[in-house]
Design a protein that fits this description.
This is Transposase. The protein is α+β, with helices and mostly antiparallel strands. The protein has four domains: about 25-125; about 150-255, no CATH class; about 265-350 and about 455-485; about 355-450, no CATH class. The chain contains 16 helices and 13 strands.
């Protein structure tokens, strides 16, 4: 018997009984949010109309489907049967969704999700025991011409200091007041100079008021000149304070944006003019596996080398580190290798260094200028270059970079004379100086360790699979970003 289809007939309002299929993303979102740990203490005020967990499930599901605006999220909650199952038939308004997204409770739930997400994904066999770290630049919502450069501020501050000293000396030569004559020539004490000049102006105004009939009145001329000096010193003082505030904003950076002090000017991948123009942005670091992002963090460092250690520390705090830590060659530095070897010895690090692929090329292996192609004699500790020049150990050299990281080098000096006291011409540079080379044993050790781990069948396969998953993740991310930008 065929059912009669009539939408206008009288019906009883009953919630639709629905359960997503096993393996659907709505099921995973539901289990993940229910596993989050948070405290929702109700003290006073109007009680919440919607449960925070239901709101978080709705937002995560909508974001997963590419719905990022509050209007579209509300529409998803109204029309999508999976979203209605997550909210149990509740449809919050776009205003409620917007208030929830920017609330402190939402941030607490997100932070809690980072702590439990990796364990949840492992329990459901959605990821393996690997963590791939990737960094990319994102543009800040700031004017691209609102840059402030550290070198310019330092130069302007130096010029302003010289101007202040010259101005104070000029004031001392033109003023006969004892207080003015005792002013210090100190750039940091311009507030005292401004206060003394203000007192001097008030004193001259009192003299003018006491002698109203004197004409021409010398006090008026002195007041006019002192006021001009007072305004000039105050402008110099204000510039000094402005430059000092800018230096505090810089921190360890070399630039920031006037409209977004947290943004740093850096090169980004979007360069339509192909001129390497610096734009305000952030260095976004993500930890991912199988297209799942465990954690993210924003940095002002334009290079990825300086971001690995603090990001790994954050991942360790949330318990999101696996057995294998994988990243590209942009993270391969001695400081990062040393930190991971000392602080994370239980992890297998699969991070190639910058010249690893080039060293396997024929051009690199046939280059006589590369020390790795020279003969090394460990017994007597000397190098022999292709021209037959012997480099003997001379001394230890320590170099410290601007980030206070020290590197230990072994310096080898070329033998300049033969046994018959004949000059060895290839042992000298074009400037007639003896050649020498600096070898960093720690750096060579870490390079050899990474070559062995990435050449191993297990390490090579893990790194290849991780790179493939990352490329798929980047393709999907670009498609989402393009669709959102077009709106």
């Amino acid at each position: 018997m065929r059912n009669h289809y009539n939408m206008n007939q009288t019906s009883l309002s009953i919630s639709t009984e629905f359960l997503p299929a096993a393996g659907h993303e709505a099921r995973y979102i539901n289990d993940l949010v229910d596993a989050m740990q948070y405290e929702d203490l109700y003290i006073t005020g109007r009680p919440r109309e919607y449960d925070l967990r239901a709101m978080m499930k709705l937002v995560l599901f909508a974001y997963l489907r590419g719905r990022t605006t509050c209007w579209l999220i509300e529409r998803e909650a109204r029309e999508n049967i999976y979203a209605r199952w997550l909210t149990q038939e509740n449809v919050p308004s776009y205003r409620t969704i917007a208030r929830f997204i920017i609330s402190d409770k939402a941030e607490q739930l997100i932070q809690s999700s980072f702590e439990t997400m990796r364990g949840f994904l492992v329990d459901h066999d959605l990821i393996d025991d690997c963590v791939f770290i990737y960094g990319t630049k994102i543009l800040a919502n700031a004017n691209k011409y609102s840059f402030v450069w550290r070198k310019n501020i330092i130069r302007f501050d130096t010029l302003n200091c010289e101007k202040a000293k010259a101005l104070i000396e000029e004031i001392k030569t033109t003023e006969t007041n004892a207080l003015i004559q005792s002013l210090p020539l100190d750039y940091d004490q311009l507030d005292l100079t401004v206060a003394q000049l203000e007192k001097r102006v008030a004193q001259l105004e009192a003299e003018i008021a006491a002698t109203p009939k004197v004409s021409p009145n010398p006090a008026k001329q002195a007041r006019r000149h002192t006021k001009s000096q007072f305004h000039e010193v105050r402008r110099v003082r204000d510039k000094r304070n402005e430059y000092a505030a800018d230096m505090e904003v810089f921190g360890q950076r070399n630039s920031f944006s006037k409209t977004d002090h947290d943004a740093t000017f850096m090169r980004v991948k979007e360069d339509p003019m192909l001129n390497g123009q610096l734009k305000p942005g952030y260095n976004l670091q993500i930890a991912t596996n199988n297209q799942f992002v465990f954690d993210y963090q924003l940095f002002w460092n334009p290079t990825d080398t300086r971001t690995l250690i603090p990001f790994v520390q954050t991942l360790e705090t949330y318990g999101a580190l696996g057995r294998y830590l994988i990243a590209d060659a942009g993270y391969g530095s001695e400081s990062n290798y040393r930190y991971l070897a000392d602080e994370r010895p239980e992890q297998t690090v699969l991070i190639p260094y910058g010249t690893m692929l080039k060293e396997n090329s024929r051009k690199w292996r046939t280059d006589d200028r590369k020390v790795m192609n020279w003969d090394y004699h460990a017994k007597d500790d000397y190098y022999l270059d292709p021209q037959g020049v012997r480099f003997n150990f001379q001394r230890y050299v320590t170099r410290t970079d601007k980030y206070s990281f020290s590197r230990q080098f072994h310096r080898y000096l070329a033998e300049t004379m033969t046994e018959n006291q004949q000059r060895i011409v290839p042992a000298f540079t074009k400037g007639s100086r003896a050649r020498y080379i600096d070898i960093n044993p720690d750096w060579e050790y870490f390079k050899a360790q990474e070559r062995d781990q990435l050449s191993d069948d297990t390490g090579a396969s893990i790194y290849a699979v991780a790179r493939l998953m990352l490329n798929q993740f980047l393709v999907i991310s670009r498609l989402i970003y393009t669709s959102l930008d077009s709106r």
